[in-house]
Amino acid sequence: MLYSKLVEIYEALSANTKRLEKTKILADFLKDLHESDKEVLYLMLGQIYPEYSEKKIGVSHQLAIKALAKATATNEKEIVKEWKNIGDIGKVAEKLIKTKKQSTLDSHVLTTEKILNNLRKLPELEGKGSVEKKLSLIVELLTSASSLETKYLIRTLIEDLRIGIQDSTIKEALSQAFFDKDKEATKIIESALDKSNDLAVVFKIAKKGRLKELEKVSIEIGKPIKVMLAQKVKNIHEGFEALGKPVAIEYKYDGFRLLIHKKDDNVTLFTRRLENATKQFPEVVLYVKEYVKGDSFMLDAEIVGYDKKTKEYQPFQAISQRIKRKHDIEKLKNELPVEINVFDIVYYNGKSLINEPFEKRTAILKKIIKNHPYKIIAAKQIITKDEKKAEEFYKKALKDNQEGVMMKKLQAVYQPGKRVGHMLKIKPEERDLDLIIIGAEYGKGKRVGWLSSFILACYDNGKYLEIGKVGTGIKEKTEQGVSFDELTKKLKLYIIEEHGREVRIKPKLVVSVTYQEIQKSPTYSSGFALRFPRFTALRPDRNPSDIATLSEVKKDYEKQKRNWRYG
Ligand code: ATP
User: Fold this and answer.
1) How many domains, in total, are found in the chain?
2) What is the pTM (predicted TM-score) of this model?
3) Whose CA is nearest to atom 30 of ligand 1?
4) Same domain, 240 and 345
5) Tell me: the pLDDT tens digits for 221-253?
6) What is the atom index within ligand 1 of the atom nearest the CA of 251?
7) What are 459-505's pLDDT values in tens digits?
8) DSSP reduced 3-state for 516
9) Which of 253, 300, 556 to mutate to test the pocket of ligand 1 (most atoms within 8 A of CB)?
10) CATH number of the domain that 508 lies in?
């Protein structure tokens, strides 16, 4: 397909801010799209492979600028200057090509196949000479692109397409294009997307109008799925009211989530961001091989750190550095040991269990795991009708340094990617939120050269809304915890605009923040501000879409008002 055709859609989507219009544009595009062009849909989302794939474009701003400089015979410094003026490197590219390439202007030769072909070579290139090779693959594309095409090519390279479509828009567009917006069909499409994480596969079946086949799209060992998430209730009583009796109650372990896949002798670990974390946790692989029976399975688990001397469970922050670590893995393994707490099973010996009731899944789990405390255990659980017993269990969980408890409905199925009302979490009232950094400011004095104040945002319908600034809780030195230097290095990769000391940052880095109080505030776009926010941890295991939503912030605000009123 000609890239110019896709670019037309990008332009139309960017120009229309209303969701219904965007859905219609997408639906029309999907209707016209030929099955053999289905991989264009990856590009449509700014990617080159399905969402679950680990192969990402991975081009830095610096490399993109280098390529643009080479393709347009412009000085790199000039490009950086323009970038600071305009703010969007895609627009800089568009402008440059317009002025430099008069003769071949808008030649319409670039195809989506060519783009996918070149971009897919990028993640394969490593080691000596790889930068040069990457550069020439990118330059080849840029030199045959029109100015408008260049804008989107550059944005694709730096993974910041700016066309504003959400997962929900895609699901609705598919339903509108092929099933007349039928509600049931929309649900089936959503479920197929959550299980496969592959838009092209779902599109192919939807285009044929085969709902039954879409229903059969299943989970597969080795392919990560989106996990099922919980809703919050205030106390045990509320939990029973929502779920009925009896219920399963389990410890809510304070660690991070891993989906553990095993087939024959291969164990693969995925985070809830669908990232492969197998290399980082060699002992987890070992324990699973040794202590879980079965030819193939997919387990849902929380990995918790403990103190190697006292054996006391540690809060999440203690082990968070293990998640992305590429070196010193053996050393970290010994210093920060972990225990696997398995709480669900979604696939067993060749069969998906997601449509089986929790009661059955948890029974299989208990049968196949040989508990070895401090290595691997089935999550501590009671099944009860008795509120008193449940309260006691909750207290014990807190005494054991865990976050609280989970209450689960025995008859409920596993719904990948959903925040469901049949799995509930209860934890003591504490004031913390997971938020995202969308801006920052360079420091002065001894913090010069570091980003030192960070703008936090919550999520609302595809948008990130500011809710405050944090600078407290971050350390001067790396040995003491997460430092300014570390945060600056991480965030620099995502800077999209600079104005003096202030920078705008692509929403990528999720952080946990505690605060004393939420106040109404006209200063920030969310309408709220956090009083005394304090940084507590980086959350490399969380997606930008997993952060606190505006409605959650509102709820917390309302709740705190009630608490004041009634003491
Ligand atoms: P939170 O910050 O409260 O952990 P979350 O958005 O990460 O919230 P939720 O699904 O809302 O995730 O809360 C449940 C989380 O608790 C799970 O994502 C999982 O990581 C963790 N967890 C710990 N123990 C259990 C358990 N026994 N059953 C289910 N989830 C558990």
Assistant:
1) 2
2) 0.79
3) 252
4) yes
5) 999 999 999 998 989 999 999 999 999 999 999
6) 27
7) 998 889 999 999 999 998 877 789 999 999 999 988 888 888 999 99
8) coil
9) 253
10) 2.40.50.140
